[in-house]
Amino acid sequence: MPPFALEAWIGPLVARDDVESSDRLTLGCPTAFHRDRVRERFLAEIERCAALEAGAPIAVELVLVPRLRTGVPSEAPCAPRIATRSPAATLTAAPAVSRTATADPQREFPYRFDNFVVGSCNALAREASLAVARSTQRTLNPLVLAAAQGLGKTHLARAIVNEARVNGEVRTIYASAESFTNDFTHSIRAHRAAEFKQRFRHGCRLLVIEDIQFLDARKKATQLELFHTVCHLLDVGARVVLTADRLPRDIEGLDPRLRSKLSSGLVAELDAPDAIVRREILRQKAADGGVRLPDPCRELIVESVRGSVRDLVGVLIQLVATASLLKRPIDPELTLVALRKLAPIPGVRHPLAICDVIEIVASYFKKRPDELAVRSRRRDVLAPRQLAMYLCHRYTGASLSEIGAALGRDHSAVANATRAVERRILERAPLRYQVEALCARLDGMVGERRE
Question: Is the CATH code 1.20.1530.20 the one for domain 92-269?
Fold first, then answer.
């Protein structure tokens, strides 16, 4: 099972201790929706594992115990919640991780680099974060991740902590600016400032502090303490990562010395995800949650929601919950219902002609349109032709057969090319930049058609 599905659906189950039968296992579920989903998707595997453990067949019974203290709030909706802090969040019923510097240092966050969807909007931040986590680039110290809410900086911050621990670094501290301020204030009042400094300066090799824009401008002592802590850690070769919802230069009330120190390393911005990244985020989240999201529904959401990942995930939550509660399949009609509640409905899109798309692609690669239709496997012809097929599929609304006929191929070749391009976009940054440049030109043509 994907680890997030395990956490969302199996983690909340609790074995009832009031059943003494040796051939039956009773599991309590927090909600009826949870019970039905486990019965539908995971019960057979649970029974198989239980039989292997017991050495004999075990009957597994799922019962509804709403007041179970399983870490799931009793007021939780009867549909899976989606963690909305980053592009790689998944369908989950788990509570949010508290941001305290005194939390269990070995606790793992459900965020990793391999489930963070990468695009040109966040590639620099992701690569810098991975380099810091693996301690391969000392010049990136300190690293500041700047982004508006819901664009993935928390995902990367927590992924850094996880990756560092995987690589053997146990002296890590993850905190929010608020918890850092509270801990420092309490240490002063309790005359334990020395203990605070020992923990943050001498007992730490990786410090991650989130949302430094919330540092109180009136508490100069707290900002000064953070400044000296960062300076000390950098001097001894430790790693420092901070996140904010804006660039350090734009944070009002930030001490000039602290602002200067934060700007001395690398400041990596995360922008709003483009259509390619939004599409992959939806595909990944739906797959991790065991939800089948039809292509037309996914495209409706991608076209409608152009803001943060949190907005994107909010629509998906609404759609999945509505489908589950009404026991209806997820289709374009139901998707429009969800979009009306949380996002603007896309306007009428006037598709481009196949010849328009081919001409744009050929011009980009400095070729004639008829050159893309020749029977050639040369790289300088094959790559543009596959991109033309992929973009025709996205922008024209034509059938695969029609696209293939325009480029001298059959429908299966177009389908294969489309899948190949979608896969390579996520793996190869240069191709991703080419697609984005072509999409910008095609979007411009679509805008002209609308006008």
Answer: no
Tens of pLDDT, residue by residue over 361-405, are: 988 888 888 888 888 778 888 888 888 888 888 788 788 888 888
**Rounded Cα–Cα distance for residues 215 and 207 (Å):** 16
- Within 1-137, residue ranges assigned H as helices are 3-5, 32-41, 43-54, 123-133
Per-residue pLDDT tens for 256-300? 898 888 888 889 888 888 788 888 888 888 877 777 888 888 888
The CA–CA distances, whole Å, from 104 to 98, 172, 193 equal 11, 10, 21
Cα–Cα dist 178/227, whole Å: 15
**In terms of DSSP H, where are the helices of 42-152?**
43-54, 123-133
Evaluate whether 96 touches 83 at the Cβ level (below 8 Å).
yes
Burial 107-135 (b: 16+ CB within 10 A, else e): eebbbbbebbbbbbbbbebbbbbbbbbeb
Q: How many CB atoms are located within 10 Å of the residue 198 CB?
A: 12
As a whole number of angstroms, the distance between CA 451 and CA 445 comes to: 10
Distance CA 122, CA 274 (A): 10
CA distance linking residue 281 with residue 87, whole number of Å: 6
CATH class of 354-450: mainly alpha
Answer yes or no: are the C-beta atoms of 417 and 439 closer than 8 Å: no
| Pairwise CA distance, residues 33 & 10, whole Å | 13
State how far the Cα of 28 lies from the Cα of 340, in Å rounded to an integer: 36
Pick the CATH number of 275-342 from 2.120.10.30, 3.20.20.70, 2.30.40.10, 1.10.8.60: 1.10.8.60
β-partners of residue 421 are none
Across 47-177, the runs of DSSP E, i.e. the strands, are 59-64, 81-82, 91-92, 143-146, 172-176
Establish how many alpha carbons lie within 13 A of residue 40's alpha carbon, considering only the half-sphere containing its beta carbon. 9
Pair 197, 231: CB distance under 8 Å: no
